[in-house]
Hints:
Layout: H1 5-32, H2 39-59, H3 68-85, H4 88-99, H5 113-116, H6 121-132, H7 148-163, H8 165-172, H9 178-188, H10 199-223, H11 228-239, H12 257-270, H13 274-281, H14 287-290, H15 292-314, H16 321-336, E1 347-348, E2 351-352, H17 356-368, H18 381-397, E3 407-410, E4 413-416, H19 417-448, H20 455-466, H21 482-496, H22 500-516
Helix pairs in contact: 1-2, 1-3, 1-7, 1-8, 2-4, 3-6, 3-9, 3-22, 4-6, 6-7, 6-21, 7-11, 8-10, 10-11, 10-12, 10-13, 12-16, 15-16, 15-17, 16-17, 17-20, 18-19, 19-20, 19-21, 20-21
Amino acid sequence: MKVKNDTVGRDVGRIIQAVSLMMLISLVVAAVNGEFYTVPAFVVSAVIMAGIGTALVRRYRGADPPEKREAMVTAATAWALVGILGGLPFVLIAWTIHVDPFPAWANTPPMDPTTATFRHPLNAVFESMSGFTGTGLTMATVEEELPRAIHWWRSFIEWVGGVGVIVLTVAILRRSGGSSGSYTLYESEARSEKIHPSIVTTVREIWKIFLGLTLGSIALFLLAGMPLWDAINHGMTGIATGGFSVHADSIGHYGSPLIEYATVPIMVAGSIAFPIHYLIFKGELRNFYADLQTRWVFIWFGAGSLVLTAILYANGQYPTLEETFRVSLFQFVSATSNTGFGSASVGNGTERVWTAGPTLFACLGMLTGAAAGSTVSGIKLIRVVTLVKGTVWQIQDIFRPQAAIRYLQIGDRRLSEAQAQREYTEATVVFLLWITFLVIGVAVLLRVLPPTYPLEYVIFDVMSAQSNVGLDSGVTGATMPGTAKAMLIINMWVGRLEIIPVAVLIGSVVRRLDRSA
């Protein structure tokens, strides 16, 4: 069956409308910080996005509610357009500073090299896609040079992107088609868990939890000694497992073990599924260990940190065992939670800091990610568990009698043979497509980058992009060839949507081209 384009057009329009409201909120932050020269950039960006969104909604207002295929195409299309249009404030602010058209009261600063980077639209789109997908890779060389309005916009899009632009849309805009259509769209953003029977109520509960966790994160950073502006931005991007920072050296800027240790529970909190947070807030603390994914978040984070500590300590990377453990704990949790905050350098492009062993082990953490239903990306722990247990189950099946009734136990779920085959197949397909796009990304970067970059660093940065992590080894930056930037943008887009919606979009486009040929 073909995709109903009018349904896709209407729902994409509604998503763009919702995101345009974010720019109006950003006007307040710009005014409070006295950066009045940035106000027109946000206004123009909001008008453009709202205009596009409204035009689509009006053009397709009579469309049917989405089915699964329309929801998948909507998710892939909307995330691509939001990533592109979200680059408008970066471009317009950079060009405003460059042209300097306003009187002195607008407080336009001199142009700095970092902000000047965003005069190039590709760099602006890269930053926007990195933000909305919760990646945190950046074209900014020295974040301290950026205006606060850009600091805020980077943090805000990561904060919203951590939960999801479709979740934002369902929360604030009532849509035609009832709750079933809303739930179909909700699922297309790689979510399935419901806190309440109503999907709209579920989404609003998620936002309440997320806001509470954000405020708690900001308070924790303040208690650890971080300045207010820094705490606000890092609290937003930390709980969203996004990783944008207001400093070039990220959390390592502070040189404070207390702040580094305080960041770890924030990244862990962002790695736990929202329904589990809901139960924990209701007093059901046993879910810290009873829930399969949450249990494995702590096991994997802990075991991985200890393994990385052993590798780095054996290499003599850091002078003391405590520093080695602190760096290992921070970097592994940052990688596996897909946050991307940094407390130490992995590499400086062509100069090795970490050797291949710890670098590739961190890549393993990026690949798995943490809990489905949280703010993280990656393949997700539940799929890793399904792949491992499913493979063992398939092998054991050879030795069972044909008449035997077979079940697969995953956590507290007992799957029938048909359910097990379906979930195992889905996990396998996602894994294979994931690796395919990863290999394509690595191949493209190896083709266009100078040969002086170590292979493990190229793999590290592509994995960081596709798993929406944000840690880098010095490969990613404004001086990259445009082809490499475009490839990483695709990797970030693909990774945020867990591959399948992108594959459905590509399939629908190919079928349409075949019919028109």
